[in-house]
């Protein structure tokens, strides 16, 4: 990785981490201090020293926080390095001066958001334990009643659990709502096309709107009502959870025979900082599995070694004595030759290295020994569809075009071929890709490879998660392509004109 890139990445990372610590610490520290001050006042002990200390720290942090945030943005988001459609693969592998002259498209428009997200989540994983440790230490050191503080700590977890439960229910609601809407729209299309007799559709409140093709307005109207109800119930829940906290604190006070106004007042202020600590810990645990997804997307490009590939792609290739070793296990691969329009099926039992073989062709892995010989270069680079497909944090169309200029009619044709018109209307891919099914993600990956490649297509189980219609459309297209692929699908196997078996 280029040294300048490393410095920019980690400088931004450290400055943003400092800014995050300050921004989290400031309101939490303030609330905790106010709680302790209130407790001192009701206990009729002096709180002058704590008040002065709190004001000084708040003043200092208020001055530092925006400065750190400004520096963070200034250092990390340098336009000459991370914007203007620069290809980040070249930033990571070559000299910065070559980037603007590469003429290799604007993959960074997609990859930049993944890199930034990876950095932010990495920051959360590192910063959270520091913040939690500091805040917990502040609370415990300055509290005169450890048992009382532990009680508030436990009570604060209750609304957090309520919140997480509600968020889960909210997600389930929206998922079911989306599925409901999709099924209703499909039903509407069937009626309009006379595939279902109108008399069977007996929902009288929207028959007229449906017949006039105004069904979307009906859905939107009801969606708005549901969202309002959801917002109101969320507000009521927020009120309830704090009321429950207060009741539990009073109950604990009775239990420990320490009912007092100062304890109640202090606990009301302490609920917020302690709740923040618990929230941070939950987020820290929750973020770990998402890191794997983002890291996979980042590594796909940052580790992509295309130094042994012709920059223009290829149609014909030959391999000799390829060997790849991982974790002490050696994979030896048979020699192959493939020419234009050939369709080579790679077969072998699970664990024999079929996917490794394809990754070597795609340039994702570099063999320890052996060579790949290319001939007949073509205009565009090869297309590679791995077994685990990836989406970038951007729109579906941008995921498909990879920043390249592709005519709109070709994009729309590909969307229609793989029934991606409706998913393409969603503005943005969620961080964890959970808003898309496995089949939709696979279709996007295939469409991406088909539109951006006129050379060899490298396909690893391309029909996994695809519906029958999409498989049939895919096979029609692949019949005109040069392929190296693995598959358990009999329909796809039938188009192969050659087979190579791996026996590692």
From TrEMBL:
Which InterPro entries does this chain map to? AAA+_ATPase (IPR003593), ABC1_TM_sf (IPR036640), ABC_transporter-like_ATP-bd (IPR003439), ABC_transporter-like_CS (IPR017871), ABC_transporter_C-like (IPR050173), P-loop_NTPase (IPR027417)
Enumerate the UniProt keywords alphabetically.
ATP-binding, Membrane, Nucleotide-binding, Transmembrane, Transmembrane helix
How does the protein associate with the membrane? Multi-pass membrane protein
The answer, when asked if Transmembrane helix is one of the entry's keywords, is: yes
Q: Any keyword tRNA-binding?
A: no
Quote the cellular component terms of the Gene Ontology held in the record: plasma membrane
User: For the ABC transporter domain, which residue ranges apply?
Assistant: 312-504
Principal cellular location given in the protein's record:
membrane
Q: Give the subcellular location.
A: Cell membrane
Transmembrane segment boundaries: 21-43, 49-71, 122-141, 147-166, 235-256, 268-287
User: Tell me, what is one Gene Ontology molecular-function annotation carried by this entry?
Assistant: ATPase-coupled transmembrane transporter activity
Q: What is this protein called?
A: ABC-F family ATP-binding cassette domain-containing protein
Traced from the root, the source organism's taxonomic lineage reads: Bacteria, Pseudomonadati, Spirochaetota, Spirochaetia, Spirochaetales
């Amino acid at each position: 990785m280029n040294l300048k890139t490393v410095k920019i990445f980690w400088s931004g990372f450290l400055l943003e981490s400092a800014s995050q610590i300050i921004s989290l610490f400031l309101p939490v520290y303030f609330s905790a201090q106010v709680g302790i001050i209130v407790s001192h006042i009701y206990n009729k002990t002096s709180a002058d020293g704590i008040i002065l200390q709190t004001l000084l720290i708040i003043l200092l942090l208020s001055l530092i926080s925006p400065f750190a945030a400004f520096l963070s943005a200034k250092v990390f988001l340098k336009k000459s390095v991370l914007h203007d459609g620069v290809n980040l693969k070249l930033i990571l592998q070559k000299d910065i001066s070559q980037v603007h002259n590469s003429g290799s498209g604007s993959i960074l428009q997609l990859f930049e958001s993944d890199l930034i997200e990876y950095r932010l989540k990495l920051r959360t994983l590192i910063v959270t334990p520091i913040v939690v440790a500091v805040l917990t230490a502040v609370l415990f050191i300055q509290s005169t009643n450890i048992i009382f503080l532990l009680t508030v700590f436990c009570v604060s977890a209750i609304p957090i659990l309520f919140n997480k439960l509600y968020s889960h229910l909210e997600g389930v609601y929206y998922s079911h709502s989306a599925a409901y809407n999709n099924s209703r729209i499909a039903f509407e299309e069937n009626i309009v096309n006379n595939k279902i007799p109108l008399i069977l559709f007996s929902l009288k409140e929207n028959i007229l709107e449906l017949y006039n093709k105004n069904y979307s307005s009906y859905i939107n109207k009801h969606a708005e009502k549901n969202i309002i109800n959801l917002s109101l119930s969320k507000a009521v829940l927020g009120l309830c959870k704090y009321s429950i906290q207060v009741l539990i604190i009073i109950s604990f006070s009775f239990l420990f025979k320490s009912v007092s106004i100062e304890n109640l007042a202090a606990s009301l202020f302490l609920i917020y900082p302690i709740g923040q600590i618990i929230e941070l810990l939950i987020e820290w645990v929750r973020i770990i599995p998402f890191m794997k997804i983002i890291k996979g997307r980042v590594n796909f490009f940052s580790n992509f070694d295309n130094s042994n590939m012709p920059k223009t792609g290829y149609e014909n290739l030959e391999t000799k004595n390829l060997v790849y070793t991982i974790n002490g296990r050696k994979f030896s691969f048979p020699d192959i030759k493939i020419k234009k329009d050939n369709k080579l099926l790679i077969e072998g039992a699970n664990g024999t290295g079929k996917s490794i073989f394809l990754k070597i062709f795609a340039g994702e892995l570099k063999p320890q020994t052996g060579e790949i010989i290319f001939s007949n270069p073509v205009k565009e680079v090869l297309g590679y569809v791995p077994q685990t497909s990836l989406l970038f944090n951007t729109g579906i169309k941008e995921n498909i075009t990879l920043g390249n200029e592709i005519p709109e009619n070709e994009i729309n044709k590909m969307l229609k071929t793989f029934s991606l018109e409706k998913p393409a209307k969603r503005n943005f891919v969620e961080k964890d890709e959970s808003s898309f099914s496995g089949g939709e993600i696979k279709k996007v990956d295939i469409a991406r490879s088909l539109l951006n490649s006129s050379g060899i297509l490298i396909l690893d189980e391309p029909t996994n998660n695809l519906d029958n219609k999409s498989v049939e459309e895919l096979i029609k297209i692949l019949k005109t392509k040069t392929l190296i692929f693995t598959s358990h699908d009999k329909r796809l196997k039938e188009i192969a004109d050659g087979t190579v078996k791996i026996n590692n």
